[in-house]
Design goal:
Distance between the termini: 54 Å
Order of helices and strands: HHHHEEEEEEHEHHEHE
Strand order of the largest sheet: 1-3-2-4-5
CATH class of the largest domain: Alpha Beta
Shape: flat
Low-confidence stretches: none
CATH topology of the largest domain: Rossmann fold
Number of strands: 9
Number of domains: 3
Mean pLDDT: 90
Helix content: 40-55%
CATH architecture of the largest domain: 3-Layer(aba) Sandwich
Strand content: 15-25%
Number of helices: 8
Largest sheet: 5 strands, mixed, barrel
C-alpha cells in the first residue's frame, strides 16, 4: 500500500475546507504548507470537481475525502500491525520454551505469561530458549491478549478546613471501603495519609498514586485512591492526560 504526498496534501486541504476554512492563506498557515502549494492543490481539486468556484466542498469532494481518509486509516492500521509484529514483548515462561516455538500469551497476576500454544487466542513466537519461570521475549504477536476489566475509583473528601472531626471522617471512609471491591489502595496528600494511619491501612501506592493506578488498570487491577478535594483538583490535568492515553480504563469519581 502506497500513499502519495500529493494525496495527503489534497485531503488535508479538503478537510480544512469542510471545516470552514476557505481562504488559501489560512489553510497554508494551518497546514504549514506554502501558499503557492495550497493554491496549486486547490486548482487541481477544483478541476476534479471536488470544490466549487467559492472554494466550497462538493458532494464529489466529500466522497473523495471520506474514501481517502479511510484509505489512510487502513494504511496506518496495517503499518501498526507490521511494526507491532516486529516488536519483542517481555513475557514470563510458564514452561520450558525453545527459540522459534509458537506460544500462547495470557495475563496472570498482572504480568504477561507465555506457555505452550493452545491453538487459539493471543499467541506469538519465542525469540530465545528459556526455562520455566524465566523472562523471555516473544515477537510476531497475533490476536488480542485478554485482560480483565478494571477501573480506578477516586474517592474524595472535604478539605481539612471543612472537617470538624477527623475521627468521624475516618469512620465514614472505613464504611465506604468496606462496601467496595478493589485490588489496590492508594493515597494522595497529607489528609489521606492521616486517615490511612487512623484506620491502620498500609497503602499499596503512596507516591504517584494516579500513575500507579493507571498502570495497574492496564494490567487488569482495580485501584481505590483516597484524596482530599484540594489534592484531587491539583491532579486533574494529570488524570485527564492519563485518561487520554488509556481510553479503555474506566474512571469512577466519588465524593465521600
Amino acid at each position: 500500500m502506497k500513499i502519495e504526498q500529493a494525496l495527503i496534501s489534497q485531503l488535508m486541504i479538503l478537510l480544512n475546507i469542510k471545516n470552514g476554512k476557505t481562504r488559501p492563506s489560512e489553510i497554508s498557515k494551518e497546514l504549514d504548507i506554502t501558499l503557492q502549494g495550497v493554491v496549486y492543490h486547490i486548482k487541481i481539486l477544483r478541476e476534479k470537481g471536488f470544490i466549487d468556484e467559492k472554494n466550497g466542498i462538493t458532494k464529489e469532494g466529500f466522497d473523495f475525502l471520506y474514501n481517502g481518509l479511510n484509505y489512510i486509516e487502513d494504511f496506518v492500521h496495517s503499518s501498526l500491525i507490521s511494526i507491532d509484529s516486529s516488536l519483542v514483548w517481555e513475557v514470563i515462561s510458564d514452561d520450558n520454551i525453545a527459540s522459534g516455538q509458537k506460544v500462547s500469551l495470557y495475563m496472570k497476576h498482572g504480568y504477561l505469561h507465555a506457555g505452550p500454544y493452545k491453538g487459539k487466542g493471543a499467541h506469538g513466537i519465542a525469540v530465545k530458549n528459556s526455562m520455566k519461570g524465566e523472562c523471555t521475549g516473544v515477537t510476531a504477536v497475533r490476536e488480542i491478549i485478554k485482560i480483565d476489566k478494571s477501573r480506578i475509583v477516586i474517592a474524595t473528601f472535604n478539605n481539612v478546613e471543612k472537617v470538624q472531626d477527623m475521627k468521624t471522617l475516618a469512620a465514614t471512609v472505613q464504611d465506604y471501603i468496606n462496601n467496595i471491591k478493589f485490588d489496590f489502595i492508594g493515597i494522595t496528600g497529607e489528609m489521606a495519609k492521616t486517615i490511612a494511619d487512623m484506620l491502620g491501612i498500609n497503602p499499596d501506592f503512596e507516591y504517584a498514586s494516579v500513575n500507579a493506578a493507571f498502570e495497574a488498570a492496564k494490567r487488569g487491577f482495580t485501584t481505590l485512591i483516597l484524596v482530599s478535594d484540594r489534592f484531587f483538583h491539583f491532579s486533574l490535568n494529570e488524570i485527564r492526560e492519563l485518561q487520554a492515553k488509556n481510553p479503555g480504563v474506566e474512571l469512577d469519581l466519588r465524593h465521600i
